[in-house]
Amino acid sequence: MATSCGQSDRQREGLHLAMELFEAASFIEAFVGQSLALKLAQIELALTGPQISTLKPALPSPEVVQSTLVAAHQIKRIAGQVHVLVHALGILQCLPRILEPDETVEYVSLGAGNTGKAFDLETNLRVAEFKFISWRGGSEAIRQDALFKDFYLLAEHVTDKRKCLYVVDVTEPVKFLNSKRQLSSVLSRNVKLRQLFLDTFGNQYSTVRDYYLPRQQLVELHDVGQWLP
Q1: Which residues pair with 163 in a beta bridge?
Q2: What is the dihedral of CA 129, 130, 136, 140, to 10 degrees?
Q3: Which helix or strand (DSSP H or E) is residue 223 part of?
Q4: Which stretch of DSSP H or E encloses residue 145?
């Protein structure tokens, strides 16, 4: 029951944040119009030359300025939580589609980052991680590092359950996991993970591909992009 209540609280918090963002974005959209640069250029032009007493008709009303400023502040405040919101709502979107009829959830961790749970999801049949990353196909070292961490922790986890890694489009993740990027680079930002890896394997593996190929059958990669808006 406690888990159910916790999930409900997080869902309500997520929906509240979404509504705040929607309302704030509506204010900003109304102020900006087609282009923020154009809008600001128009205001700059209106501010040039006239005396302060003649500026009022050329500028946004104080009410518009204040409401838009509040909206911008709200978005700035919430922005740090957006990745958590995407993670939580993404998992909620996927769960009904991946769980089997006889599968029971032992725990689900909707918060991104260190939540005290080993994985995002554990059931009687699987352990799973979710990565809702929009891959751009360029230099994506930070995204790659996060993906490798999830793959590594799943691959090395001792269990008879299925190990699943859910991503948005498997093309870039598979391309990275088969790459010759140096593991020393991948692990450089995560001191704890690097030490864990070195304690286990030493210098046995040099590249991501070296580590991935012997373990590619241990972790199932699934594309959940079709289920996400």
Answers
A1: 127
A2: -40
A3: strand 220-223
A4: helix 141-156
Distance (Å, rounded) from C-alpha 208 to C-alpha 214?
11
- One-character DSSP codes across 2-50: HHHHHHHHHHHHHHHHHHHHHHHHHHHHHHHTT-HHHHHHHHHHHHSSS
Q: Where are the domains of the chain?
A: 1-98, 106-229
Alpha-carbon span 13 to 11, nearest angstrom: 5
Q: What is the pLDDT of residues 104-154, one digit of tens each?
A: 999 998 876 656 788 999 999 999 999 998 887 667 899 999 999 999 999
Q: How far apart are CA 15 and CA 165, in angstroms?
A: 26
Residue 132: strand, helix, or coil: coil
Amino acid at 75: I
Radius of gyration of the chain (CA): 23
pTM higher than 0.85, yes or no? Answer: no
What is residue 175's three-state secondary structure?
Answer: helix
Distance CA 172, CA 176 (A): 6
Helix, strand, coil shares of the chain, percent, nearest 5, are 60, 10, 30
**110 with 87: CB under 8 angstroms?**
yes
